[in-house]
User: Fold this.
Amino acid sequence: MDITDILTLNEFLKLYIYNTINKKLDELNNINKVKTKKSLLDEYDEENGYVEEDKESPYKIMKDNINYFIKYGNVNCKTSLKDLYGMNLYDLLDYLRFNIIYENEHREDNNDIDY
Assistant:
């Protein structure tokens, strides 16, 4: 394997991660997104450089998200860690997305029932 093969493989992996996995992670992160209100001083702070930018690597953030989703699948979906780690990442994210949406729909249905 020469250097061009390694660089080509690296670019392919980056494209795969950004075009498929990131889209799925964004879908999962946006399901229960909480809207926050901005302060009157937020714009002023941004203009004057008072806002500290998050310098975490996107790969570290992605790794942390995937670890969170695996923990969620294990605890909330009652799926074994062996099954979760054995799943294709794309399928795992689809599985978790379905479960989160299902739980949200049924939680809302249960709230409408008068006891």
